[in-house]
Design goal:
The complex is a heterodimer of chains A (324) and B (440). Chain A has twelve helices and 14 strands. Chain A has 324 residues and is an alpha/beta fold. Classes of the chains: A alpha/beta (324), B alpha/beta (440).
């Protein structure tokens, strides 16, 4: 088994899919000879050739549009956004061309739109965003946010094989900071299934992406006080694993919803509504949200640190909820 | 005259000359004259204009006592030019195009009647005056080429194998419409048989998509022509630029027809862009541009056919500007009162069907008056039969709104249309990079 970083696991996953299926190709800015701004496609052009690893002009609408057009001929494009912040430049194509196409006129759009998202790297407001809700709110898209290297590889492979458009958020904080043993075989992690990252009985933290690690760190601290926290990593936001959410709430009866995205309109609001629908009678306390502030991501490190949810926030809220 | 469309830069350079735009010279009377000095570096671009007339009138927004309106300045009395002989079309092909144009017109008249009978959901969009552009351009495609219509290209749909009932059912929101009621107008497609991509309401978005279709086909070893359209208004969007530039950079076989019909809803082209002719935009993209008379089926066909063949040879996109006029409002609710009446008169005399009919009957003698009437009667019968089927088809069940948001459970098989791309890579095997090294 190999020890791979989160980034390398994604790289390996895309490489394996391109080896296995010649209809898979990549397009994006600087992904060719340069190998991508984060080196996710490093070496790809030398193995797969420039026809399948395409450097594009700086034109996100054209990247998405061309990927969609190619998918109509039966190929499986993987389009990279240098930073997911820039996916905003392609919103019309994604929302009105790609997301609606199968529902309206029956044409599948098997594309993957992937790129680095998230903060904590002093990237400032345009290199640190978590724009997943724009896509969660868009029927027809699938939204994937892996938190572990193992899941990142398995989910990128599943996303490429999926016949639907998948928006794949790779948390850049995790790119080189986590490293795991990854099986060398061709494994896939199914979309739409959460995983229990840590078992517990006192309260649940439902979360995704980099905050999974924040939750796990907080859980270690809380365990010393005898508070056993269950951490559920959603892995996929759309389609959502409602059953896993219901199960954990039924088990612990208290829940914290944690995400790095801002509070208003963030996924925690959707989760709270789902919990209300699935397991209201099992709640023994109010649903707690821990999120970033409602603002752009500030640049200066002390500001960004204040802006993001912290381990101390989780510990504090967990203690309070436990005592409710 | 009939060169292949080009926009070629010609560089003139005289060695040893420095760059000076002008120099002052005094003649014998002491008056200074500015005399242009040839630059050491100068580029000339050619945009062929195949029209047999070049209208010189223009419009101005004027504020008078009773408010603001558009006024026409210039000559609107010029005689109608003849149809320009096609380089390629046979008699049979001309007659087929003519028939499609008649079907196009008759179908839209039927839609208007259906609207007035209260059978249409929402509005109706017309391509009146644009039938030659829609039909002749679509006719120039090979079967394996792709196309994506805009809202006024109803005639193109007929040429590519859709039936009039398809469009009628779309407008009437019927259960058997190509989208099963889920969208209206020309918003439908068929990626399996007729190679058509559905438009959306936003303008310009089809352009990168059609570039992508060409890209996908090329990866599978095929060079296909991908025809789509954009209006003089629609081409203002950013996505138009991004898509066309992408196609140009990658030499993709995009054939873009700019339907210069002078009006974007109520906005005249004088208020939409600053260039004299939209074909000039081709210079900015580095691709050939050409101007044709959009009411002349032969000109439209020839320019499109040449662009299609360029596409098949992998030579990249072509921008064709078809000049014509939108002869109704933006949609049926729009009386187009803002259009100066002389403009309607000018372009009514240039009705594409009238012009082409006269060409076939009087100039080429390929159609007798009796045959022409028989042709029209046959078109009427066909459209009427289609209308009957469309009107009598059911509305969708309410529950049919549910389902199909995702492609699940094998509802479609995604496979390459032209065959799996040949893997042409290097020998490099997967190797961990420095990114694999865990930061300590």
């Amino acid at each position: 088994m190999l020890q791979l970083t989160y980034l390398e696991a994604i790289r390996q996953g895309i490489w394996e899919e391109m080896e296995r299926d010649s209809t898979v190709f990549c397009l994006g800015e600087d992904i060719g000879i340069y190998g991508g701004a984060f080196k996710v496609t490093d070496g790809f052009i030398h193995r797969f050739g420039p026809e399948r690893v395409i450097d594009t002009p700086i034109a996100e609408s054209a990247i998405v549009g061309a990927a969609f057009g190619a998918s109509l001929t039966g190929l499986r494009p993987v389009a990279e956004f240098q930073f997911m912040d820039f996916i905003a430049c392609a919103m019309n194509q994604i929302s009105n061309m790609v997301a609606k196409t199968h529902y309206l006129w029956g044409a599948p759009a098997p594309l993957v739109l992937r790129g680095p998202s998230g903060g904590g790297v002093h990237g400032g407001p345009f290199h640190s965003q978590n724009p997943e809700m724009w896509f969660v709110h868009n029927p027809g898209l699938k939204v994937v946010c892996p938190a572990s290297a193992y899941d990142a590889k398995g989910l990128i492979k599943a996303s490429i094989r999926d016949n639907n458009p998948v928006v794949f958020f790779e948390h850049k904080y995790l790119y080189r900071r986590i490293k795991e043993e990854i099986p060398a075989d061709d494994y896939v992690v199914p979309l739409g299934k959460a995983r229990v990252a840590r078992e517990g009985r006192d309260l649940s933290i439902i979360t995704y992406a980099a905050m999974v690690h924040t939750a796990l760190e907080a859980a270690e601290i809380l365990a010393k006080d005898g508070i056993e926290v269950e951490v559920v990593d959603l892995r996929t936001l759309v389609p959502l694993d409602r059953e896993a959410i219901a199960n954990t709430v039924r088990k612990t009866n208290k829940v914290i919803l944690l995400h790095e995205d801002s509070k208003t309109g963030g996924f925690a609001g959707e989760l709270a509504a789902v919990i209300n629908e699935e397991a209201f009678d099992d709640l023994d306390g109010p649903i707690v949200r821990i999120t970033a502030l409602d603002s752009a991501v500030p640049f200066s490190p002390p500001q960004e640190h204040y802006f993001l949810p912290k381990v101390e926030d989780v510990v504090r809220e967990a203690r309070r909820l436990k005592a409710y | 005259m009939w060169d292949a469309p080009t926009s070629m830069a010609k560089k003139k350079r005289k060695p040893g000359t420095t760059v000076r735009a002008h120099e002052n010279r005094r003649n014998g009377h002491g008056k200074a004259q500015l005399v242009p000095v040839s630059d050491s570096y100068q580029r000339t671009f050619i945009i062929p204009d195949h029209r047999l007339e070049k209208p010189t009138f223009t419009m101005r927004q004027a504020q008078g006592d009773d408010g603001v309106s558009y006024g026409l300045i210039g000559d609107v009395k010029a005689p109608v030019p003849p149809i320009r002989e096609s380089k390629y079309l046979s008699k049979q092909q001309c007659l087929e195009i003519y028939r499609y144009m008649l079907l196009n017109r008759r179908m839209e008249q039927t839609l208007e009647n259906l609207y007035k009978q209260g059978k249409v959901v929402g509005g109706v969009y017309f391509g009146l005056g644009q039938e030659a552009c829609s039909c002749a351009s679509a006719y120039a495609l090979d079967k394996d080429d792709w196309f994506a219509p805009m809202i006024r290209n109803q005639g193109a749909l007929l040429v590519r194998g859709f039936r009039a009932r398809d469009t009628m059912m779309q407008y009437m929101a019927k259960a058997d419409s190509p989208t099963k009621g889920r969208d209206g107008t020309s918003h439908f497609g068929d990626i399996y048989e007729r190679n058509m991509v559905s438009p959306i309401s936003m303008l310009g978005d089809l352009i990168p998509v059609m570039a992508g279709v060409a890209l996908g086909a090329r990866l599978q070893g095929r060079e296909v022509a991908c025809l789509t359209y954009i209006g003089d208004g629609g081409q203002s969007t950013g996505v138009t630029y991004e898509g066309l530039n992408f196609a140009a950079v990658k030499d993709l076989g995009l054939v873009l027809i700019v339907e210069s019909n002078h009006w974007a809803y109520s906005t005249p082209s004088e208020m939409q862009y600053r260039v004299k002719d939209l074909a000039e935009r081709a210079i900015g993209y580095g691709i050939p541009g050409v101007i044709v008379d959009g009411t002349d089926a032969c000109q439209v066909y020839d320019a499109t056919r040449e662009a299609v063949e360029r596409a098949h040879q992998g030579k990249g996109p072509t921008l064709i500007e078809a000049k014509m006029m939108r002869m109704k409002g933006h949609a049926i609710h729009d009386a187009a009162d803002y259009v100066p009446k002389p403009m309607f008169d000018y372009w009514r005399r240039r009705d594409p069907i009238t012009r082409f009919g006269q060409y076939l009957i009087n100039d080429k003698k390929w159609l007798s008056v009796a045959e022409s009437q028989e042709l029209m009667a046959g078109v009427d019968r066909e459209i009427e039969a289609e209308r009957e089927i469309a009107v009598n088809s059911p509305m969708p069940e309410p529950e049919s709104a549910v389902g199909g948001v995702y492609c699940e459970d094998g509802c479609h098989e995604v496979k390459p249309k032209y065959g799996a791309p040949k893997v042409k890579g290097g020998k490099r095997r997967f190797k961990e990079t420095e990114a694999a090294v865990h930061l300590k």
